[in-house]
Write a structure and sequence with these properties.
InterPro entries: Acyl_CoA_acyltransferase, GNAT_dom. It is a single chain. The protein is built from seven helices and seven strands; from the N terminus they run E-H-H-E-E-E-H-H-E-E-E-H-H-H. Helix 4 crosses helix 5. It is of the alpha+beta class and about 220 residues long. The protein has a seven-stranded mixed sheet. It has one domain: Aminopeptidase (3-Layer(aba) Sandwich), CATH 3.40.630.30.
């Protein structure tokens, strides 16, 4: 039986609300996105109904907000899309991997009918997601799908299935909560590895998998 967790010794997921919108906007600007609307429009759209849950990612040691995370597009077919991004200069070692594990565990614990959770990234091998590499499967590659910082990037779509999470992921998370170190390299997070998570979050006013449907004509 899964247990709901929202924090480890160094990482916490805190429910986000409209007061966090300006902080998020500034972080997206720092990451170099070019598709942001004006700040007023961004703040007005912060509570979009089709995002199922959204969190501030907080580093517990400093109690700083270092990123944001969301779950969106809960589908009757039993899947949902996860989005997460960080300020790599402030997040610190391991925070991103732990935030993703907490987000996955939240999804499977909250929705008993959920079969799998999708997430997207660019220019990254799954090993760089630390312990997540043991539970995620690459389901699709969209070649040269995103233009960012002067070049085209492949987009990789991964999924974590419930059975795999229950058999492996939940135990890994429990050990982290008990204080076991996470096996991640110091250089784990760069902008390019996380930027497509930003492209998928709700405040850019795009429905989940819209780009994927444009390529395939159907939803996963």
């Amino acid at each position: 039986m899964l247990i709901l967790h929202v924090e480890t010794p160094r990482t916490a997921l805190v429910p986000a609300d409209a007061k966090d919108a300006t902080t998020l906007y500034r972080l997206l600007l720092k990451l170099g996105l070019h598709s942001l609307p004006p700040l007023e429009s961004f703040v007005a759209s912060f509570d979009n109904d089709w995002v199922d849950v959204q969190f501030v990612v907080r580093a517990r040691q400093s109690d700083e907000t270092v990123g944001f995370a969301s779950l969106q597009g809960l589908d009757p077919a039993g899947h949902i899309q996860a989005g997460i991004f960080l300020d790599q200069e402030r997040a610190g070692y391991g925070v991103g991997g732990e935030a993703m594990m907490l987000l996955m565990n939240y999804a499977f614990t909250r929705w008993g009918e959920l079969r799998k959770v999708y997430f997207m990234t660019t220019d990254a091998s799954l090993a760089r997601f630390g312990a997540m590499s043991r539970t995620a499967t690459r389901e699709a590659t969209l070649p040269q799908h995103m233009f960012f910082r002067g070049r085209l990037w492949d987009v990789y779509i991964y999924s974590v299935r419930r059975q795999m999470w229950e058999e492996q992921g939940a135990g890994l998370l429990s050990r982290l909560i008990d204080g076991a170190p996470q096996e991640e390299p110091e250089e784990e997070y760069t902008v390019t590895r996380w930027v497509y998570f930003v492209e998928s979050v709700k405040w850019l006013a795009r429905r989940p998998f819209e780009k994927l449907r444009n390529h395939t004509g159907s939803r996963i």
